[in-house]
């Protein structure tokens, strides 16, 4: 019950951010803003450090961009 309420509130908050920006798609900036407001992201704790701390390598590679030859940044 509590987990359902939590995710329902998170989705409502993210939808509100999208509506405020006149968008229909949730962007990374929306998630980061919500996590900052929840106190999960701080000056000393970034989103990337949370990803590296809690997600396995195969998921981290999908989320965190990597730099290839020629300074090309790609997501896998």
UniProtKB/TrEMBL annotation:
GO terms for cellular component: kinetochore; nucleus. It holds the Pfam family CENP-T_C. GO terms for molecular function: DNA binding; protein heterodimerization activity. GO terms for biological process: chromosome segregation; kinetochore assembly; mitotic cell cycle. It is found in: Chromosome; Nucleus. Residues 5-67 form the CENP-T/Histone H4 histone fold domain. It comes from the Eukaryota. Keywords: Chromosome, Nucleus. Belongs to the CENP-T/CNN1 family. This is CENP-T/Histone H4 histone fold domain-containing protein.
């Amino acid at each position: 019950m509590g987990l359902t309420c939590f995710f329902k509130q998170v989705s409502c908050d993210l939808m509100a951010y999208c509506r405020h920006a006149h968008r229909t798609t949730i962007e990374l900036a929306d998630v980061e803003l919500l996590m900052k407001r929840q106190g999960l992201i701080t000056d000393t704790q970034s989103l990337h450090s949370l990803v590296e701390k809690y997600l396995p390598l195969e998921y981290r590679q999908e989320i965190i961009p990597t730099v290839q030859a020629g300074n090309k940044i790609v997501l896998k």
